[in-house]
Amino acid sequence: MKQYLDLCQRIINDGEWVNNERTGKRCLTVINADLTYDVSKGEFPLVTTRKSYWKSAIAEILGYLRGYDNAADFRALGTKTWDANANQNDVWLNNPYRKGEDDMGLCYGAIGRAFPKPDGGHIDLLQQIIDDLSRGVDNRGEILTFYHPGAFHMACLRPCMYSHHFSLLGDTLYLNSTQRSCDVPLGLNFNMVQVYVLLALVAQITGHKAGQAFHKIVNAHIYEDQLELMRDVQLKREPYPLPTLKINPEIKSLKDIETWVTLDDFTVEGYQCHEPIAYPFSV
Ligand SMILES: Nc1nc(=O)c2c([nH]1)NC[C@@H]1CN(c3ccc(C(=O)N[C@@H](CCC(=O)O)C(=O)O)cc3)CN21
Ligand SMILES: O=c1ccn([C@H]2C[C@H](O)[C@@H](COP(=O)(O)O)O2)c(=O)[nH]1
User: Fold this and answer.
1) Which residues form a coiled coil (predicted)?
2) Does 160 participate in catalysis according to the annotation?
3) Domains in the chain: how many in total?
4) Is residue 179 part of a domain?
């Protein structure tokens, strides 16, 4: 929690104003932040200085792991977070590749579960990683990437947290996740939860202990219409102790994640938080 609040404060103290063409808004911006979550110690990084919708965050990462490319599928899992990007952005609405209502196009899991090969066909990057890790192999390139510049024109948004690199040391699994662009008041709330859950889940289904997750953020920003709420409300609050996350131990394979896992398989214990803050969202 401290590392999150420190980053927010750093943006306010040292950030520079940058015009963003896509959203038409200015963002107070810093470059480079490194956050660490110790999954082995159960340090679940849930923001306590406002109500944080952790179920929505877990639904997003489950949808990515399932290879979803449609906001309706994300809603069925329990999150509306893709509705706006799929259905309210004029550039995407006028894109000839958009397949209709709720389509997100070729991004996130739609790439990671079926990465197009230059010589034809696809690779299921996640399945390959799970297979390797399950037999104790780390080939030093266990990288789940959602980043495919050749598909950007066929997607509603480029992936923000675009790479997840798993490593095995003995029987402990580590994760390095990289994010190119980060909406600190809204997105990062979710992204911290997602990095933690990704390591915990993959460790569980591949039969390893979870170690640390390292989260690298390149462009960390606060939109101009979010600044006052962050500076004058959220940062004035004292954080509470971190809660803990429990994952159903019956989740044992990628197939389980793809077929029957729901948000009921995740519980958060001891979550004490301040009042919600409704930050404006930029489409
Ligand atoms: N500008 C922007 N920021 C983001 O964080 C973001 C995008 N766009 N587009 C793609 C995804 C969608 N994500 C989202 C979208 C909406 C919320 C949001 O509205 N959160 C509210 C309510 C959450 C709820 O009720 O489930 C929040 O208070 O956290 C958060 C993350 C993260 N990403
Ligand atoms: O997981 C996510 C997804 C998106 N974001 C934020 C970061 C930016 O504010 C926007 C994306 O805009 P770009 O113009 O494509 O950078 O969404 C996030 O923080 N976390």
Assistant:
1) none
2) yes
3) 1
4) yes
